[in-house]
Structure prediction request, 242 residues.
Amino acid sequence: MYEAISLEQKFSLFSERFQPKVVARMNDYEFKIARAEGDFIWHSHPDTDETFLIIDGEMRIDFRDGSVSLKAGEMFVVPRGVEHKPFAASECRIMLIEPVGTVNTGDQPRGERTAPNGVEL
Amino acid sequence: MYEAISLEQKFSLFSERFQPKVVARMNDYEFKIARAEGDFIWHSHPDTDETFLIIDGEMRIDFRDGSVSLKAGEMFVVPRGVEHKPFAASECRIMLIEPVGTVNTGDQPRGERTAPNGVEL
Prediction:
């Protein structure tokens, strides 16, 4: 009836990169997990902050005027409206926390890097 | 300028049990870390869900009609209004995600178990 959500188990269910999957909801927010590898695209989220929590591995978030390097057990909140580009030299497992409906490519035109929203594991 | 938030480093800054500390904000939500050990009190949050993410150790959340056991890498969202009682046999490090202003003792009269809100690390 009450069941723990295991991130490891959820990660075992997919292998795509930069395609966030919903593992839990809290009010009108979603917890998504994703595998990051290589370069994502520059984008921003004009209406919301976006939280990155690193589960395993390392990644970097580039900004137009700097960057932040993150490893397992670290987190960062990208402020709304700030252009950023995630990058991981090798596979990195992350959790994203953001409002329901937040699109992974943000303010950019939808394209091949745009992941479908609301895909639940 | 852009700095990673290290949960391990933040945990090194306090030792109290069941006294959540704010490590990050996202929109009108807070990320809090806490050390759980022993029994907390029965309470509910009438206006919000509350997310538990286990960073290290194990804990249990009791409900009036069941319970959920959680260990590192697992999470659970307690729905709004649902009475619950956290318990950890030995120290467990957790992250809580919830709206700014959420009180740890929820709907219960404020007392010695009520932690001050908005304490930042």
In short: The domain at 7-99 of chain A is CATH 2.60.120.10 (Jelly Rolls). The first strand of chain A starts at residue 5 and ends at 6.
